[in-house]
Amino acid sequence: MELMHPQRPCENCLTIDDLRPEDFRIGATDSNGHRERTQLSLHPLMLLQAQRVVSSGNFPYRSINELIRHALFRQLKLLERLAPLVNSVFSQVEAMQGVLAAAEANQDMQQTIKGIAAMVQTWVSDGQEFLARKTLFSFKANIDAMPDEDPWKSYYQETMEQQFGELMVAPRDAEPVSLATFMEMGDAV
Q1: 3-state SS, residue 136
Q2: Domain extents for the chain?
Q3: Which residue has the higher pLDDT, 74 or 178?
Q4: Integer angstrom CA distances of residue 165 from 44, 49, 75, 148
Q5: Confidence class for position 107, pLDDT limits 50, 70, 90
Q6: How many CA atoms within 13 Å lie on the side-chain side of 23?
Q7: Crossing angle of helices 90-125/151-164, nearest 10°?
Q8: Quick one: CA torsion of 131, 104, 148, 137, rounded to 10 degrees?
Q9: Count of H helices and E strands in the chain?
Q10: How far, in Å, CA of 173 to CA of 182, rounded?
Q11: Is the pTM for the entire model greater than 0.85?
Q12: How far apart are CA 69 and CA 76, in angstroms?
């Protein structure tokens, strides 16, 4: 698919809003941690443009290496469609990419939960339980909004309940509450 030109929309075109960060991530290793290193020569202006793309923040590339891996992956897939190879490795690569993307997303979520735990601990120790609860319920609302078919949703919900159970209940009636109910309680405080 082509990226859509602002003045020439076409059928079957992608816009920047259609793309997800994980669509740009092509891992450097296989599922066993193996990788190959290579070196390439580039025209100086190509390197400058790659640096500008990465630093622009318009795309979720964290480095020029990620941009080059993604570009090479897409080009190889295009060539494969033009002249299919008998011994193509793309089904293996795509399967590994799915596993690695899920692992990376889980790792990011675990880091987020650790960061929230540190904030909550600080607020509770400073007597700011309201801020701690508000943060937890806001984060829980984001988890609850995940698609039901996402296998990580229940895992994250259980993790939140195990780690923050005592703060995830209303202080008045000890019944679990939603973010909306908690926010109403906050207005009354």
Answers
A1: helix
A2: 1-28+40-88, 108-188
A3: 74
A4: 55, 49, 49, 21
A5: confident
A6: 8
A7: 20
A8: 0
A9: 6, 0
A10: 12
A11: no
A12: 10
